């Protein structure tokens, strides 16, 4: 791989790594994001005060719920026992 191709690849990767968290934080119906990424301080701390409020935390947990409920095709705001167990495995595994 030549230097120009490597530089282009790194620039694209950097752009995606910056835009993905912003996209996830701004879309409640976002595509799938790993739990560890969702629960990162930079994602949760919306007002960038260096602290996580209960509301900021609950907003991110809501996003995690909605992403997984959509992925598991849960009906409405309810999960079956099997779906909830799958959701808990997502949380335990860190996404």
Keywords:
single chain, 95 residues, mainly alpha, 5 helices, 66% helix, elongated
Structure report:
66% of the residues lie in helices and 0% in strands. The chain has 95 residues and is mainly α. The protein has one domain (3-93). The longest helix is centred in the first third of the chain and has 24 residues, at 3-26. Mean pLDDT is 73; it is low at 6-30.
Unreliable runs: 6-30
What is the average per-residue confidence, as pLDDT, rounded to a whole number?
73
Radius of gyration: 16 Å
Terminal CA distance: 32 Å
Q: How would a crystallographer describe the biggest sheet?
A: none
Global outline: elongated
The structural class is: mainly alpha
Proportion in β-strands: under 5%
Tell me the series of helices and strands, N- to C-terminal: HHHHH
Task: List the domain count as a whole number.
Answer: 1
Helix tally equals 5
The helix content, as a percent range, equals: 55-70%
Count of extended strands? 0
Pfam family, one: EF-hand_1
Organism: Caenimonas koreensis DSM 17982
GO molecular function: calcium ion binding
Signal peptide: 1-24
Gist?
This protein has 95 residues and is mostly helical.
């Amino acid at each position: 791989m030549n230097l120009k191709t490597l530089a282009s690849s790194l620039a694209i990767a950097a752009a995606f790594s910056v835009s993905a968290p912003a996209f996830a934080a701004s879309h409640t119906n976002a595509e799938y994001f790993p739990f560890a990424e969702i629960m990162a301080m930079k994602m949760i701390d919306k007002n960038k005060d260096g602290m996580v409020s209960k509301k900021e935390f609950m907003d991110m947990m809501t996003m995690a719920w909605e992403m997984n409920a959509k992925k598991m095709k849960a009906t409405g705001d309810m999960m079956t026992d099997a779906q909830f167990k799958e959701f808990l495995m997502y949380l335990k595994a860190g996404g």
